[in-house]
Amino acid sequence: MRTGMLALALGLLSLCLVPQLPSVGWLLMLAAGAVVSLFTRGWLLGLFLLGFCWACWSAKQAVDDRLAPGLDGRTLWLEGRVAGLPARTAQGVRFELEGAHSRRADLPQRLQLSWFDGPPLRAGEQWRLAVTLQRPTGLLNPHGPDREAQLLARRIGASGAVKAGQLLTPAAVGWRDGLRERLLAVEAHGRQAALVALVLGDGTGLAREDWQALQATGTVHLLVISGQHIGLVAGLLYAVVAWLARWGLWPPRLPWLPWACVLAMSAALAYGWLAGAGVPVQRACLMLAVVLLWRLRFRHLDAFHPLLLALVAVLLFEPLAALLPGFWLSFGAVATLIYSFSARLGAWRPWQAWTRAQWVIAVGLLPVLLAVGLPVSLSAPLANLVAVPWVSLAVLPLALLGTLLLPLGDAGEALLWLAGGLLDVLFRALALVAQQRPAWVPPAPPLWAWLLVCLGALLLLLPRGVPLRGLGAVMLLALWVPREPVSHGQVEVWQLDVGQGLAVLLRTRQHSLLYDAGPARGENDLGERVVLPTLRKLGVDSLDVLLVSHAHADHAGGAGAIQRGLPVRRAIGGEPLEEVQLQPCVSGESWEWDGVRFSLWRWADARTSNDRSCVLLVEASGERLLLAGDMEAGAERAWLAAMDSPRIDWLQSPHHGSRSSSTEAFIRAAAPRGVLISRGRNNSFGHPHAQVVERYRRHGMTLHDTAVEGALRLVLGAQAGVEGMRSQRRFWRDVRDG
């Protein structure tokens, strides 16, 4: 039984490794082969193929339901129904639309939309909206999150920005909408948004600082309704029935065990319904159902059987769940606890089991966190040691009971006030811990080092006295394996995918330079969210130079976050900034690192911010790269006049390919063989301009575009080409033509 379930699970999980989905014809052939194998001696192969075919078929349905390429960037009038709880943000409202349809085109069934300064929306409302649609997209950087995979796993077929709207059918105040408003209206020491997250699973109202504290301390799971909360509610009902039966207070004519399991499952389903029954909640309820079934009928089997059965059940229900990091974290945590606590001799006292559970989970989830690219919280074992019982045994029961008693007025509000006070104490403590021990973003290890970390974690989790257990700690040192050095006389160039902005990392053998720091608008700081984590995952722990071309927010916005997050030995800028102290860019200044020459230039007579860009020329083993910032036609003419030899090999497209840059004279004189364009997809500026693109191609240049290829990598001095992240094929990644 276990072997068959394992074969089926492997077939379902193999979807994650598929670069391209098989055609319908191939799937039918594989399914036929699976059926034949099931009735012969190859039944394990048959189960594997059945799992693979079902996963691919389900994925194909989701891929086919995405927005047609011809509609990408177009604005259409459409109609649909608001689903779930719309999230209010500082910029407006973000929500999902179900059953979307338009007279002019076929649309995906589920859209994710944002409405700048939009009106309050309620679940169930029917709207007619003018929406600029985009295919599911996301920034794609080395070792970073893959938003396209996450959107596909949630079966979001398109995203879009609402330009105008008309309410067609108002909805009665939905019970979840009404309950959220009621919770937000109570006095809870300013922690009403956290109560909404605990009770309804809606964490959109949490302040940015609160999310940062939760992430730094590894306690996000406490405020996101997950298996822990579902299991706690079910466990409380189960424990009550078991306690009544133990003391003879349960009716003898009713067998206590079946009733305990049924009531526990009912409580879990009710809480999941209250929380909106999202994918994590569905996964938790399925896992709980399997565990209760094991407890009721199959206790003679070991604990890994229900875990494997739950894994298969979740993947059969939604094969795309394996594309979500939460899937691996949930099953990884449970598997770690089973592996560590089962088959041990002797019993631990409750406090011993609880304290050991924290470091066990920290060690067991380390390989998972590395694989999915999430930060590692060094304070998580200590923080969870206190925070988990604080929330599970005090805050959550008070919050749920207070919510149930809200119709009674003062009683419910008093309990919520107390729950809010406990949450306030918790958040203040977590903020202090996060300040002292921020989350660690380790460099992404090579495959062999990651496998060593996995083996080391398995050895460390063995019982004391097992031979070679101590070797596990040595294997974990693979976390600090040095990155492969850049050859002398070469420079590794990463033009990161930061949307409508610019951030370029240059690394020689022993030095690092960051040219521009990505955009920041309001709270959306891509320097903090994208550039800084990417630098750390690439092994950059300090910068020799931070060079900010000019003061525009799409180039300089993330500079403050970079300087706060990494040691910066020297900061240079074409223009002064308020947040970061910059040395002025001096034309003619140059230096050499590891056989690579760097030269600065800035137009002294510039009158606009774009033309004041600090330009960087990099020369490595006879190959030249020009980072031009946003310089326009005037600065280009001045640069040509100042250069003895303007010939270059690679050009960072000035001003993102704007029509005011990349003049005919500049392109003819510089004659690069390739151009690196950094811009946002379907951006409102129309970058790169069609005339500029035509000019590049007319001169025989190869275009590399972050909006099409993701982050771009070039090894200057190796006389090689440019590699885009999107060249690493995955079936969920959109094939783009620009």
From TrEMBL:
SUPFAM superfamilies: Metallo-hydrolase/oxidoreductase (SSF56281). Keywords: Cell membrane, Membrane, Transmembrane, Transmembrane helix. InterPro entries: ComA-like_MBL, ComEC_N, Competence_ComEC/Rec2, Competence_DNA_uptake, DUF4131, Metallo-B-lactamas, RibonucZ/Hydroxyglut_hydro. Pfam families: Competence (PF03772), DUF4131 (PF13567), Lactamase_B (PF00753). Coiled coil: none annotated. The keyword Chloroplast does not apply. It is found in: Cell membrane. It is a multi-pass membrane protein. PANTHER family: DNA INTERNALIZATION/COMPETENCE PROTEIN COMEC/REC2 (PTHR30619), RECOMBINATION PROTEIN 2 (PTHR30619:SF1). This is DNA internalization-related competence protein ComEC/Rec2.
